[in-house]
Amino acid sequence: MPALTRRRAARSAGLGDEAAVKAAYAAHGAELYRFALRALDDPGAAQDAVQETFLRAWRSADRFDPELASLRVWLFAIVRNVVVDQTRRRSAGSWAKVPTGGDDEVVAALAPVPDDTAIMVDRWVVAEALGRISVDHRYVIVETYLRGRSYEELAAERGVPVGTLRSRSFYALKALRVAMDEMGVTL
């Protein structure tokens, strides 16, 4: 089956948009979670495995071929790979060097590692939302909020009055909020 036909089939099978992925999660998420929980024996790791499964499925939706396997079978193949990856990571971590110093060194070694996942997800959401607004609005937001440039500097560069740029910034933020609402992001 040609790749274009497979992509169309994958989209029609429910992997091409966010609503369809949510429907697939509603249909198969509980089964995948139980599978991951039995394999990992850790509720948090099982939740992470299911989340990673749907992320991988969404990213590779064009590789799903409904003629080869059902969506359920394909998702179980992905979750199995995720569980194997997590198990390997766990076993690799078990060989970590154990501190031999005093109590302070042991406590420092056992301190939780900062989790940057939330920051990465926030960045992805903002980048996705920025991609959904007009070029002029995106330019104003990126230059003023992300790069820290002044309105005066941008106005001189663009050849527009400062007031126009401030107005554009106001409407750009409004458009960004609407885009994020459409994505289902709550602030």
From TrEMBL:
Q: Where is the RNA polymerase sigma-70 region domain?
A: 25-91, 129-177
Query: GO molecular function terms here?
Result: DNA binding; sigma factor activity
Which SUPFAM superfamilies does the record match to this protein? Sigma2 domain of RNA polymerase sigma factors (SSF88946), Sigma3 and sigma4 domains of RNA polymerase sigma factors (SSF88659)
Give the Pfam families listed for this entry.
Sigma70_r2, Sigma70_r4
| GO biological processes | DNA-templated transcription initiation
What keyword terms does UniProt attach to this protein?
DNA-binding, Sigma factor, Transcription, Transcription regulation
Superkingdom of the source? Bacteria
Query: What CDD domains is this protein classified in?
Result: Sigma70_r4
Q: Which family does it belong to?
A: Belongs to the sigma-70 factor family. ECF subfamily.
Name of the protein in question: Sigma-70 family RNA polymerase sigma factor
Q: What is the lineage of its organism?
A: Bacteria, Bacillati, Actinomycetota, Actinomycetes, Nakamurellales
